[in-house]
Give the backbone structure.
Amino acid sequence: MNKRYFSVDVETSGRIPGKYSMLSLGACVVGEPSIQFYRELKPISTKFLPEAMNVSVLGLRCLDTVRHQEEFNPQSSRFNPVKVLEVLAEQGEAPQPVMVDFAAWIIQNSQGYKPVEAAAPIKFDGMFTAWYFNQFYPGENPFGHNREDINSLYRGVTGNSHANISQLGIRGSALPHNALEDAIIQAREMEEVLRLMRKRDAW
């Protein structure tokens, strides 16, 4: 069965699921990035790491109307991650319906294919999606064990163990840290890696 790759990105309140929360989830189909999924979630705990929140809040759409306030600006000395979690607790969606919807979206868009989760790094994003599927989805994780790390694929195709997909020049100087926007950028990077792989195989 042919594979269909899904670029997935998450923004979180910390390093590991369970203790910390997935704040937003974005995904798109590699090769068809207009097929998209995006949700912002209610936190499962009040725990957070300041360094994680400094990044994760940058692209949260629920903050669009309050982003001008210093307590929601991670560059301000008055930045307050607790306030961000409070906004998500009020405006975010509960994890269970989000993961049910995400699973349905994956299944719908992988008919006739094996769905494969792709991320950079897959260890981080895939860890959160797997844990959330296990906790909040009544069925089996639609990705199963099918995951690819985009950086590892790129290192393999270039033969350079120090290579990084940022060298492709697709993401610019920095990611926007909105989970969907990041997933779309990753999808374009994955497309280029797959193109390089096909080119190598044709030699």
In short: Helices lie at 50-56, 81-91, 95-108, 122-136, 150-158, 179-202. The beta strands are 3-12, 22-29, 32-40, 114-119, 147-149.
